[in-house]
Amino acid sequence: MEKIIFVVLLAVLLASCTASKINNSNASSPNQETIRQSENLLLSKEKTFEEESKEQERIVIYNSYITLEVKNPDSNNIRLAEIAKKYDGYVQTLGNRVSIIRVKSDKLYEAIDDIAETGKIKSKTISGDDVTEHYTDIQIRLENAHNARKRYLELLEKAENVEAALKVEKELERLNGEIDSFEGKLKRLKHLSDYSTITINMEEKVKPGILGYIGLGIYKSIKWLFVRN
Q: Is-above-0.85 flag for pTM?
């Protein structure tokens, strides 16, 4: 009899332990599911942020200013025109002192290296102006102008008399002017971003006369007396 009671108690204990494990397992499941949902949400937000970053193209305008010592500015301008064409650009100005060319922005540094071979660079600066916010602002203004124009066209169709129609047409004329202006500004900013500007200030190399060459020779021969490297 005692053995039977012992077996029954043992069975009850085993059953209670099994039930406890099942309950604990079920209790932990919601927590794990919550964690997985949070992780998926974070990954989704991170992916969305990356996509938005890729979609947001930066609009940067690059300008370079070079002071170049050359033998002959006119001959050098021929080389500058060739460099502009080589890098898918064009000539804006050619002068005996200042010349301006534009090249594709992704080839700016290659073009500068070629320009350096046409003379002696005395100074060089490269600057970038990020106009992304300005570009985006104009885009928003353009979109608003288009929406307003659409509403005025709807009002024009519903105009009850000539006076009302004339007022609407006047507003439409103003909006058309704004739209043309905004579109022109966007095209200009995009063009300046696509094509970097290189301004070359040319200084003609001074050629010494006969006496100059003699003086230069004397200077070089006695230079070591005064200057030590």
A: no
Distance CA 200, CA 68 (A): 7
Cα 185 to Cα 98: distance, rounded to the nearest angstrom: 27
Report the alpha-carbon distance of residue 30 to residue 35 in Å, rounded: 9
What is the SS3 string spanning 160-173?
Answer: CCHHHHHHHHHHHH
CA–CA dist 166, 129 (Å, integer)? 44
Q: What is the pLDDT of residues 115-145, one digit of tens each?
A: 999 999 999 999 999 999 999 999 999 999 9
Q: Which residue has the tokens 């509403």?
A: 151
Nearest of 126, 120, 119 to residue 79 by alpha carbon: 119
Name which of 117, 118, 63, 114 is nearest 85 in CA terms. Answer: 114
